[in-house]
Amino acid sequence: MLYVTKKWTSNLEIGTDWIREVDGRFTPMQLTALKQAAEWPFEDYDVLYAWAYSRGEASKVLQFLDELESSSLEECLLRTGPFFHSLTPEECTRIKNGYTPLLRIWYEHYFRHVEHTLLPLLIEDASEKKMLESKMDMVPLIEYASGGIVIEDIPELETIVLLPTVHNRPINTYCFYKNLMLVQYPVDVPSDNEEEPPTVLLRLTQALSDPTRLRLLRFVAIEPKTLWEMQAELNLSREMLMHHLLSLRVAGLLRVHLRGEGTERYSIRPDGASELQMFLESYIRI
């Protein structure tokens, strides 16, 4: 998804160099095939996530793709039923037939070469969150895992799935289905060089280096605010406000409060300030 859509690239730790490096793994024909998906609806990925989740227990990548390729249209529609209020047979056919060969190319030329490095990180982190499930309530656990997503009043929500990811670090994302919410949260990759500042510390200091972002944190410190309220108070365009919000969110300094009907409000995340002091003191050895 990140490679094809180039979404959030400027905010991702992997950056544009990763895009260029991966480009070199494919033939011109394969590049053309992969990049055609950039014109397809972004919501297609929600369908792919739903199909993967509906399998139940984890499987090998190629096993999943083999099953998807051999599934009939009726079987695919049946699997999407619990997640979507409406998905037409035409949409289902296009996603199934369009993405399956592209995912095979992606796996063969990229993912299988990094799988052995990334999967242990994801499995270890997922195991930690699974262990915490018995010790923490749902809302604090989700906020902890995602670095600031707070679930408030969403009456129809029955299931929340936490999905650890590496490539989209430090961004967390979420998507809603009928009665289910999928939260993708980033897992940090350990640094080999202890002399370099940790990425968490760099995110925090960079986010706090802008006066506008400091004023924004001050404004949301007392109670959660909507986007409209922040725009009016700070006299910012929506585009610039979203830029600042993303910087603060990826640094773990903001909470986003999710309510029914897609309502979002933002507040300061007190743990973020504590983490700044902790990582700073640890790095400079106070």
TrEMBL record:
All copies of domain HTH arsR-type, residue ranges: 203-285
Xref: Pfam families: HTH_20
Keywords: DNA-binding
Domain of life: Bacteria
Tagged with keyword DNA-binding: yes
The keyword Flavoprotein belongs to this UniProt entry's keyword annotation: no
Record protein name field: Helix-turn-helix transcriptional regulator
Species in which this protein is naturally found: Paenibacillus tritici
Source organism phylogeny: Bacteria, Bacillati, Bacillota, Bacilli, Bacillales
